[in-house]
């Protein structure tokens, strides 16, 4: 009988899911908090854990996953969110370690990973038209508050390379794609990059949240009954285009509803979202709004790249060839999308 307790030197870990008890221990050790309860919220691009402390406070611990795009952007993320919080923007503030550092470096079988702690945000995702308007308003506040950010630079710029070229690179070595479909994606990426090169001179630049799909913010009701939107999960943030940050919400809705064009519900939500953004001081130009179909497609490519690039963790079932084929037609239909009522 083989010794099943011995470590197999041929075993290579690609992703480890830490037990909640381990995360609770690390938080107690590095943040000095007495943790009464901890559980895994979800695995995904990162692993997120809910924590209830003995003093009644609630936090979210994020254990960053190793991603194919490169090193963690955590120094930029935590410094940006701290800056936004200090400016009064609606964000989930990070919590510093006992040492004063913004995060902890941990050794995992697959390599070093980072752990960061954030305040828990009460509330629920936006659902009513008023709540989408509040969301747009707070996003404008975030963009405005980030203008004088002067902390650590982002490792990533949300440009054509980040949104499209990386995805193409992942597809070049993806096992669930044939030669013909790979060439189709080469031509698709080339078209989108040419469109972006033509349009980008007239587009507004901002520090993007990067993942404003509606599930990364909660609508919070204060003790006085006032309501506000609070954003979290800035791990995809970076300098980029306003049109991109605005495009993620309609993209998310159309993907979830498997739509090739906006329906009446989305148009109504978009109208309130944009109204809120403008009420919050945001000023999207006509060029920004005209570029929305382009950035909806670029967002879709970025998301596909996250799946294709994470096949070591998620497997190829996250983006099988049949699905990849269908997305070509979907993005072709989105070229002429119109969000106006």
Please provide a written account of the structure.
- This protein has helices at 20-31, 74-86, 129-145, 160-172, 179-199, 242-256, 264-279, 286-290, 292-309, 311-314, 321-334; strands at residues 35-43, 46-53, 58-64, 94-95, 104-108, 111-119, 205-208, 217-221, 227-231, 238-241.
- It folds into 2 domains: 20-119, 2-Layer Sandwich (Phosphorylase Kinase, domain 1); 129-334, Alpha-Beta Complex (Aminoglycoside 3'-phosphotransferase, Chain: A, domain 2).
- The strands form 3 sheets. Strands 1, 2, 3, 4, 5 and 6 form a 6-stranded antiparallel β-sheet that branches. The chain has a two-stranded antiparallel sheet with strand order 7-10.
- Helices cover 43% and strands 17% of the residues.
- The protein has 341 residues and is of the alpha+beta class.
**What global shape is seen?**
globular
E-strand count? 10
Overall residue-averaged pLDDT value: 95
Biggest β-sheet strands, sense, barrel: 6 strands, antiparallel
Low-pLDDT stretches are: none
Total helical elements: 11
């Amino acid at each position: 009988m083989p010794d099943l307790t011995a470590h197999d030197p041929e075993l290579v870990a690609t992703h480890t899911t830490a037990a909640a008890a381990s995360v609770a221990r690390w938080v107690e050790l590095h943040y000095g908090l007495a943790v009464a309860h901890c559980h895994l919220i979800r695995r995904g691009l990162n692993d997120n854990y809910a924590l209830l402390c003995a003093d009644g406070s609630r936090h979210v611990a994020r254990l960053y996953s190793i991603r194919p795009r490169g090193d963690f952007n955590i120094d930029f993320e935590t410094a940006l969110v701290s800056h936004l919080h200090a400016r009064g923007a609606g964000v989930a503030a990070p919590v510093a370690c006992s040492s004063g550092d913004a995060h902890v470096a941990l050794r995992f079988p697959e390599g070093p990973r980072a752990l960061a702690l954030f305040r828990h945000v009460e509330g629920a995702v936006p659902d009513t038209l008023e709540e989408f308007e509040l969301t747009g308003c707070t996003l404008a506040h975030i963009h405005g508050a980030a203008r004088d950010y002067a902390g650590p630079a982002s490792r990533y710029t949300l440009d054509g390379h980040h949104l499209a070229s990386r995805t193409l690179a992942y597809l070049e070595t993806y096992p669930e794609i044939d030669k013909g479909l790979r060439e189709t994606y080469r031509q698709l990426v080339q078209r989108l990059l040419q469109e972006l090169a033509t349009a980008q001179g007239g587009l507004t630049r901002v520090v993007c949240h990067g993942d404003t799909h509606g599930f990364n913010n909660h609508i919070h009701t204060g003790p006085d009954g006032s309501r506000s939107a609070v954003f979290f999960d800035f791990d995809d943030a970076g300098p980029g285009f306003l049109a991109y940050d605005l495009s993620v919400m309609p993209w998310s809705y159309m993907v979830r509803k498997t739509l090739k064009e906006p329906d009446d519900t989305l148009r109504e939500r978009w109208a309130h979202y944009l109204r809120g953004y403008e009420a919050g001081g945001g000023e999207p130009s006509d060029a920004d709004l005209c570029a929305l179909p382009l950035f909806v497609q670029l967002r879709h490519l970025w998301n596909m790249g996250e799946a294709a690039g994470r096949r070591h963790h998620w497997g190829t079932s996250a983006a099988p060839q049949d699905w990849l084929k269908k997305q070509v037609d979907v993005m072709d239909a989105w070229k002429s999308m119109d969000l106006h009522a």
